[in-house]
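Q: Entry one of two.
A:
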Amino acid sequence: MPETEEARHRIAADIMQRLASYNIDFLPVTGLEGEKPIMVAFEDEQISAVFERIAWSGGYANLIVVGFDERESMVSVLPSLSAVDENAAERMTAAEIHRDASIGMLLTVARVFEDGLRIPVNFGTTSGRVVSGAVPIGA
C-alpha cells in the first residue's frame, strides 16, 4: 500500500490512464446520462469517505479498489433508488457495517457472496448500494 499521498495519486493516475486507453463499454455501471463514472479508492480508506466521493457522481461508480498488495478489484456501486433486482444479491443492513470501517473490510465480506452483496448505505447525504462483489481486474 502506498504510504504517501503522492504515491496514491500516481497509482490512481496510472489506473485512469490505463482505462482511458480501453473502450470502457465493459464497465458495468452507467450513470443516468450515459456516463461511466470511475472512482479509485484504497483498501484502508473509510467507507464513509469513499461513499462521500461516490455521492459527487450521483451515487453511481465503477469503483476500483487498490489493495495492500496493490492488486485492483472493481465493485459496482449504484444509488439506492436505482432499478436493481432486489433479489440479485445478499443483503446486509447499514447497521451491520460501521461508517468508519475500511472499504477493504467491505470487500472482504463482499467476496464471500457469489451473487454480490447489497448494502444500503446512508451517511449524511450519501446513499448507495454495493451491488456486486469485488472482481479482480487487469493482468
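Q: Entry two of two.
A:
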Amino acid sequence: MKKLFLTLICCVLSSVSFGQVDKQTQQINIDVKKNTIIVADFLERELKLDKKQKQICLNAYAEYGNNLNIARKKHLAKKIKDQKLSNQTLLKTSMRFVKMRDIKIKEILSKKQFALYNDKLLRFINPLTLEIDKKRKK
C-alpha cells in the first residue's frame, strides 16, 4: 500500500513539474506573436510604409516568430547541459532566420528605407523576443 501511495505521489509531482516548463514556453510563444504586430506597427510609423508593404512586413515577421518558436521548442527538447553553448546554438539559428526575414523585407523597401531599417531600426528590436526597446544604445 505504501509503495502504491509513493508511486502515485511521484507521478503527480513529475507531471506537475513538466507542465510548468510547457506553460512557460507557451507564454513566450504568445508574447512573440503579440510583439510581431507591435514591430509591424513600429516599422510602419518609422518607415512610412503603405498597406501592402506593412502586410508583407507583418508576414515576414510572423514567419520569423513562428520559426523562432519552433527553434526554441527544439532547443528545449535537446536539453544541452552547457547553458552558454545552448544559448549560442539558439542565437545562430535565429540569425539564420533573420537573414531570411531581411531578404523578404529588402524586396519591398526602397534603398533609403532599407538603409534606415538596417542601420537604425533593427537596433531597437530584440531578435529573440521581438520586443522594442527605444532606449537601446547604438
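A: Comment on entry two: The radius of gyration is 20 Å. The helical segments are 2-47, 51-78, 83-108, 111-119.
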